[in-house]
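Render this sequence as a predicted structure.
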Amino acid sequence: MLRLYALGCPLLLLLVAAVLIGLDPYDSGRLAFADGYGVPASLGPRLTAASTARAPDAEAAIIGNSTIQLLHPARLSQLTVVRFVSLAIAGTGPTEQLAVARWFLRHHRGEASPKALVFGLDLSWCEADGRLAVTNPFPFWLYSPSVAEYAINMLQLKTFESVERKVKLMLGRAEPLRADGYRDYETGHGWDKAAADRAFAEPQSDAAPADPPNFAAPKLLGDFFAALPAETKVVLLFPPRHISSLPPADSPAARFETRCKAAYRALTAARPRTAIVDLAVDGDIARNDQFFWDKVHYRGPVATRIEDAVASALHMKEVE
């Protein structure tokens, strides 16, 4: 009896592992029993982007965090005649976003190579101490090229909950995530002037920028560019920020941001079919309180203007 028990436990564990991995709750396409069910909308974007990024009809991607999340892939698709998906993941920085971008690229090669990529470069892309902080947990294993790393990390309690949601989706009892990955955090939430004013009044960090700065992210982005097909168009977007988030002109912080932007302009100049859209500047957007939820999160009308600017930049690259 003990021998049967000792033999049965490992077999049961193997069976459980096979079910967890085979049901593919995050629709990664690896080691799955069946493909094509997608992911439930109730899962967070850190987990669902693995599915959205490998959509076979996706031709372009929006990559960034919540400061680019309101860009609507469907509208960008209409403006550019290129099918966009949104891979925006709130609370992420360059390291996580490039991991997702590499995953997208691995699933779109040859004739399916991406036609365009839009990167949202918020201030996390300007870290200047030679390192890049990962401030929130991120499932790098889900986007890893290693199947072994993926399989090992699937064996955790969180996977049981995700499998339950996936089964509900398969049975038609859960809402699927939109195929283009868009998540609208604005609809149904009324703008609160008092809350916005409180956010605008929050003091800026007075930490002195590194001098000379040692920007880590531009090199990583340059390495990613080296793996991109030459025909893929790229837009680097500095998203708009409220005037309360912009440093005073001629201040050390303003000069620091200028140096950071210059590092990305150098990348742009070195790669054909690449453009910068810099909207993190003083102007009519930055000075309109009603355009912002807080210092860095803009509202729908601004997203529409950004989409127009991105589409224009992509069209300009047609002639290069």
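Summary. The mean pLDDT is 92. Strands lie at 60-64, 84-88, 116-120, 233-238, 274-278.
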